[in-house]
Write a structure and sequence with these properties.
Elements lengths: L1 E3 L6 E5 L2 E5 L8 H14 L6 E5 L7 E4 L4 H9 L3
Parallel strand pairs: 1-3
Antiparallel strand pairs: 2-3, 4-5
Amino acid sequence: MRVRPGSSRDAITLEGGLLRIQLTATPVDGKANQRLIRLLAKRLGVRQSDVAILRGQTSRDKLIEVAGVSDTDLRGPLQEPE
């Protein structure tokens, strides 16, 4: 997953198997990470506590885990238009 903070709007796109996420939040004091978790939880219909950043807290490249959701279950909701 590649995250781009400080964008003009929040957006999720899937390009060639790579999830790209644009966030309006800036990468200051963890605000972008918090926004990422809220955005993914809302889109996937899970609690925010079910979404965890496993790797990449301070990087644009992140590894995310969503409790109770398989890889195949992620594709549909993340490909839907916002």
